Amino acid sequence: TPGYWIQLEAGGKTYDYRVPVGEEAGRARESIIDAARRLFVERGYAAATVDAIAEAAGVAVPTLYTTFGGKRAILWALLEAMSTDVGVPQRYEQILTEPEPARRLQLLVRIQCDFMRRHGDLLEALRTAAAVDPEAAAAWREGGNSMRCGRYRFG
Asked: Cα–Cα 20 to 30 A to 123, which of 5, 8, 16, 60?
């Protein structure tokens, strides 16, 4: 199978690890994002460990780290995927070209409603985690700042 081998050291041991590439890497990425979303909602951001996300995604922990670098990067990829799912980039372009202020506001409210309808469970899990987890709090602030500053992408 395609990929390349690297050696990783962890816990005083050396492991040979095959890094996925191409379609396999894409499938791994999607599996990790899906598993992270599920675990963030079920357990909360802080309790969803990297090991648990990797296990739920059916990938090795090193695959998760080589794909994303860590849990916070997974969260940003998930937020970006949610934004794309709701069509935020295209819809913000529509808002920017709309000449009528009332219509712009209406379009903005629709984006927010659609976002909450489709992804409110994850946003609530992140908001709750932000109260007790500094990493989640930073992600919550950064995501909110991105939206308030008019950027249609998270990150």
From this structure: 60
85, amino acid identity: D
Q: Of 6, 55, 8, nearest to 32 (Cα)?
A: 55
CA distance 95 to 112: 13
Give me the residues paired with residue 89 across strands.
none
**What's the whole-model pTM score?**
0.71
Per-residue pLDDT of the chain (155 residues; tens, 9 = 90+): 556 566 767 557 776 666 666 677 778 889 999 999 999 999 988 889 999 999 999 988 888 888 888 888 898 888 888 888 888 888 888 999 999 999 999 998 999 899 889 988 988 888 888 888 887 788 777 766 555 444 443 33
Q: Tokens 């409110």 sit at which residue?
A: 120
**Could you tell me the CA-to-CA distances from 37 to 7, 78, 137 in Å, in that order?**
29, 7, 17
Q: Is 54 exposed, middle or buried (0-12, 13-18, 19+ CB in 10 A)?
A: buried
